[in-house]
Structure formats: C-alpha cells, structure tokens
Amino acid sequence: MVGSSRTGSLRFRLPAVFLVGIVLSGIVAALIATRLFQSYTRAQSFSELRREASGLAQLYAESALRSADAGQQAPTFAASKLEVATGDRIYYVGASVFPGQSSGLKKLAASAVDPRVVSSDRAVTFEFVPPGEDRKFLAAAEPLRLEKGAAPFGALVIAKPKTELQRQWLPLLERLALAFLGGAAIAGVFAWYLSRRITAPVLALSDATDQIAAGRYDIVVPTTGGGEIRHLAERFNEMAAKLAESEERERHFLMSVSHELRTPLTGIRGHVDALRDGLVDDPELVQASLDVVAAESVRLERLVGDVLDLAKLRAHRFTVLTEEVDMRRLVEQAYTSFGEEARRREIDFQLVENGEPPTIITDGDRVLQVISNLLANAFRWTPNGGKVGIGVTTTTETVQVDITDSGPGIGARDRDKIFRPFVSADESGGTGLGLPIARELARALGGRIELESAVGRGSRFGLVLPTTGLDG
User: Fold this and answer.
1) 298: helix, coil or strand?
2) I need a labelling partner for 199 at 20 to 30 A (CA). Which of 28, 273, 342, 410 fits?
3) Torsions phi, psi of 126, nearest 5?
4) At residue 224, does pLDDT exceed 70?
5) What is the spatial distance between Cα 408 and Cα 418, in angstroms, rounded to a whole number?
6) What percent of the chain has pLDDT above 90?
7) In the chain, count of helices (H) and strands (E)?
8) What's the number of CA atoms in the CB half-sphere (13 Å) around residue 239?
9) Does residue 240 register a pLDDT over 90?
10) Of 50, 37, 38, nearest to 125 (Cα)?
C-alpha cells in the first residue's frame, strides 16, 4: 500500500508541477503582453488624436483668418459632420473662432480640461470627463492661432472614449486565451509523457526498496535509460547484491559458530555423562576422559574468544592502544614463542632481518597477535621437516613482516576464502578465525595483509604497517 500511494503521488505531482509552472509562465507572459499592448494602443490613440487635432486646428485657423480678413462667413460645414467623419468628439476652449458667428463647436470651460490646454502653446494630450458624460475620454488639444508665431486664442480638443481601447484589447485577449489553452494542453501531454519517462525507473527503485525492506535481496532493477537514473539503478543493484552476500555470510557465520560450538560441547558432555554414570571406572580411562574435557574446554574458550574479537573488530568496538613499539624486540618475541614447536616437529624456522627494524607508534599487543596468528597458520600447514621463515623489511614509510612456509600453497580461487570465518580445511583443532582476525586487526592498525602463494610451492603472508603510527 505504501509503494502504490507513493507511485500515484509521484505520477500525479510531477506532471502537475510541470503544468503549474507552464501555466504560471503563460499567465505572466499574457499579462506582460496585454500590458504592452495597452500601452501601445494608448500611445497610438494619442498619436491619432494629435494628428486629427493638428489638421482640424489648421482648417479652422485658415477659415478664421479668411473670415477676419475678407469678411467671409463662417464655414458652412458643421462640427457634427466632422465628428461623424472622424469618429471622435470635437470641443473648443478659448475665445470665439468666428466673432459674432456660430462655429458649431462644443464649447468647454477652461476648468473642465487640463490646465495645460489654456497655458501651453503646444499640443497637449490628457484625459478628462466632458460635461454630461460619466466616462473618461482621451484627448489631444491643439492651439489655434491666426498666423504662425502668433499667440493662440484658443485650442481645438479632439477626444474619444477610453472604452474604445478596451474594444481593441478584447480580440487580443481572446486570441491569447485560445493560444494559452492550446499551449497548456500540449504542455500537459508533454508533461505527462516526460513524467512517465522519469518516474518509471524511480518508481521501480521505490518498489525494489520496499522489497529489500521486506527482506528480499534478489531484486534486480532494470538499468534502462541513461544519466543519473542509470547510474542510480546500477549502484542499487550492487547494493542489493552486497546485502544479499552480507546476509548469506551472516547466516553462514551463525551456522558455523553453532557447529563449532556444538563439537566441543558434544565431546565434553559425552565424557562427563560417562564419568557421572560410572561407565568409566578405570583410572587411566578416567584421566583420559578428563584430559579430553580439559582440551575441549580450552578449545571452546579459544573459539569463544576469537568470535568475540572478530565481532568487536567488525563492529568497530575494538580498542587499539598507541605506544612505542620496538619491531625488532616484538618479532624476536614471536620467533621465540614458536621455537619449541619448530624443534619438536624438526621444522627449519629462521628469522631474517633486512636492515634495522624501526620503532613505530602502534599497539604492540595487537601487532604481536597478528604475527602470532600468521605464524600459527604457517606451522599448521607446514609438514614436519618443512621450512618456516619470518623476516622484517623496512622502507621510509612502511615496515613489513613476512611469514613464509613450505606448505601446500593456496590456489587463486581460494585466496579470498581463507580470510572468511570458519573456513579451514585442516583437522588440527583450528577455529578457522585466525586469518580473518589477523586481517581485521591489520586494518584497525592502519595496515594490511598481503598474500603470495602458488600451489605446491608454499605461501607468503605479509603484514604491512605504517612507520608513522596509527591514522586518526
């Protein structure tokens, strides 16, 4: 249910976001276009009014001059006919154009118009409400003068209702609305298609995540497409594979621990039951049973300790101390610890030093534990009469302790397996945790373990540590 709700939400929200963004952009663009068109039509209207006012003012000025010079009558054409011809209103402000005669112009009081109309000797544009009207008009006033350069005696005002501009805007708004609806429809289809392309792999990852959360790690997300989505799918598949591998290792680890613990416990219980029930009364057999119980108890103690050490190392809860460690003294100590076993089994055990081993800052006990585990592994696999060597090599940045043996060697396919817990093919009582603990300890000390081996020619394990001490 959670995955399906997220699927529906994402498939709806993504195209919705795209569409809302496009719609908002369209609205803003339409508003800007409308505003620009309004400014343009307003400017054009004023320009037309000025042109008409200039022409009519010149016509009336010439008629007024002929009437004054030649005593002609006022022109017979009426202002109402000019209004029909131009489609605009014609008003007049100032002294009479034809003294003693009627000009047919609608007279306006000076207070009804912009004050600049009376005081200016140039054309003026303005807005006003004519007497008897309840709506605003756009107007252009042109001064009337009898001669060029003479003082004006009045002004001719040409006006048109401001509502006429709206009749010019409406067709534009209708076309913008149609274009906007068409664009929104196309954008919606494109947003839906694009969201499907984007959300399909994301939703596949979401479903796969739900499957992994439920404990299923055999999920493979298709790595179709390209770019970041493909990269994300590939990394997700790698993560799922590592989780599956980790779960398998954990299951194997628990099964191995159970098996390893059960083996000594079974032996101990069998001998204890035999002793308790009186089935063994021979003193030698009793002592032999007690020896078995003691040996199995030691093995059990060692196994539990190794398991705890490995668990602490992997949980990063293992304390590592820092001190000055004389590598010569530490290697000699490890060499001495295995001297008796080497003599008993007639193994040629040699200590080789290449240069003067340095003193480094590290945890001496843990370094000794790693070397001891590597030596124990070498002696375990080296047959009686074979060879085991321990050597120290120093560079400017590292100190390396090499453990060599003449054992059977390790194949290339098995070199990673031997560092896994409880992977041991011998029957000498080993827990199979020595090498895994050695590698984890080496990492905790800021170093690493190297391995070189060939089947039938022995092996070399190298502990490489920094000479500058532990990191961080």
Assistant:
1) helix
2) 28
3) -165, 175
4) no
5) 14
6) 11
7) 10, 12
8) 12
9) no
10) 50
Give ∠ CA 259-260-262 in degrees, rounded to 5: 65
Residue type, 125: T
Which range is least confidently modeled, 61-65, 145-149, 167-171? 167-171
**3-state SS assignment for residue 440:** helix
Flag the least confident range among 1-10, 23-32, 51-60, 369-378: 1-10
Q: The tokens of 30 are what?
A: 């339409």
Angle at 363 between CA 388 and CA 428, to 5 degrees: 35
What pLDDT is recorded for position 388? 95
What CA–CA distance (Å, rounded) separates 63 from 156? 14
Query: Distance (Å, rounded) from C-alpha 249 to C-alpha 327?
Result: 35
| Average pLDDT of the chain, as a whole number | 78
Beta strands in 45-133 (DSSP E): 89-94, 106-107, 124-128
* Under 8 Å between Cβ of 152 and 144: yes
| Tokens matching residue 210 | 């739900």
Segment 445-451 long-range contacts (CB within 8 Å, at least 24 positions apart) = 445/320, 445/362, 445/363, 445/366, 445/367, 445/370, 445/470, 446/362, 446/470, 446/471, 447/398, 449/370, 449/374, 451/410, 451/415
Pairing state between β 459-466 and 448-453:
antiparallel
376 close to 386: Cβ distance less than 8 angstroms: no
* Sequence-ordered strand ranges (E) for 170-277: none
Statement: the pTM of the whole predicted model exceeds 0.90: no
Structural contact between residues 51 and 88, judged by C-beta atoms closer than 8 angstroms: no
Contacts (Cβ under 8 Å, ≥6 apart) of 401 = 327, 331, 371, 374, 390, 391, 392, 462, 463, 465
Q: Is the pLDDT of residue 387 over 90?
A: yes
Identify the residue whose tokens are 């295995």. 338
Q: What is the 3-state secondary structure (H, E, C) of 148-160?
A: CCCCCCEEEEEEE
Ordered domains of the chain (ranges, CATH): 2-167 (3.30.450), 227-314 (1.10.287.130), 323-466 (3.30.565.10)
CB 363 within 8 A of CB 322: yes
Per DSSP, the residues of 107-125 read E--GGGS-HHHHH-SS-EE
